[in-house]
Amino acid sequence: MRPSRDSSRPARVLNLSLFLLGFLSGVARSDCYFPDSSPATTEAECWDSSGARTGLCCAAGDLCLNNTMCAHQIGTTTGISGNNITHYRGGCTDSTWSPLAGCPEFCLSDDSHKKTGGPITVYQCPGGLNRWYCGLDVPGPLKSCAHVRITFGLTGDLSVYGVAGISPSPSSGQPPPSPSPSNNGSTPDQNATSTPTAISTDTSSSAASPTVSLDTFPQNPFENNGSESSQVDTSVGVPIAIGIAMGTAIFVAAAVLGFFYIRKRRREAPARAETPPPYEEHELQDRRYSDQYVMRLLYGKSD
């Protein structure tokens, strides 16, 4: 007996549901990682102006700096001084965080030397413009180079070479992002992914204050309440959205399967009721003997 077309529909719906779940699982994968090798689902890759991957990952829409830091613009104010921009250590495309892959080499661990699983805010030392320190080193309002255990030096020629999540495509006819040069008037190196200098405790430096034009870059909902925070955590929204999408797909698939199953049962129920069950052999014999007995009583003879 050939199966009906209706009976094959639940199987097709189930296959479609499995395909949707596989697709959503693929979307959840990330090409960026934090120092503890956990996926950085809120980060996006950085490309230089030639379209080459640099290894650095920042929050989508944030600025990629040539010293392997990330920068988030607050408002539309240009420049790099004051509270209009937040620097932070982002992610990397290499899960092992090898320096050869262009990964940042600063602010990788907390006070217990445990690898961190998120971005870390980085602060610049006042008066020592080429000295930086990690936001986790000092809690509360005492954030300054005088209260931190370790400061580190990065390149003084601070410049922006790209925007996270935007890959330049020369063939499309649109020019790649062209951030303003640093304060020395030089053009940023297209492949600049300079590594930090050796960590030291010296807080003195005579480097000039770098400036970067930020008005041409889009903003990103990188949460900031106006005060300096020790750590930026943006690893919640995307997993929640993915979980809601997967749950919705499973619910819809279950509802469709239940609908086809109930409709199939209702169609088969009348057919079973209209077809009486066959008599067993002993029932046929009992019925024949009963008819013969009635005939003898009525006519005095058997059939």
UniProtKB/TrEMBL annotation:
Name of this chain's protein: Mid2 domain-containing protein
Keyword Transmembrane: yes
Species whose genome carries this gene: Diplogelasinospora grovesii
Transmembrane domains' residue ranges: 240-262
Chain positions covered by the region annotation Disordered: 165-232
Compositionally biased tracts (Polar residues): 212-232
Segments of skewed composition (Low complexity): 181-211
Keyword list, A-Z: Membrane, Signal, Transmembrane, Transmembrane helix
Signal peptide segment: 1-30
Domain of life: Eukaryota
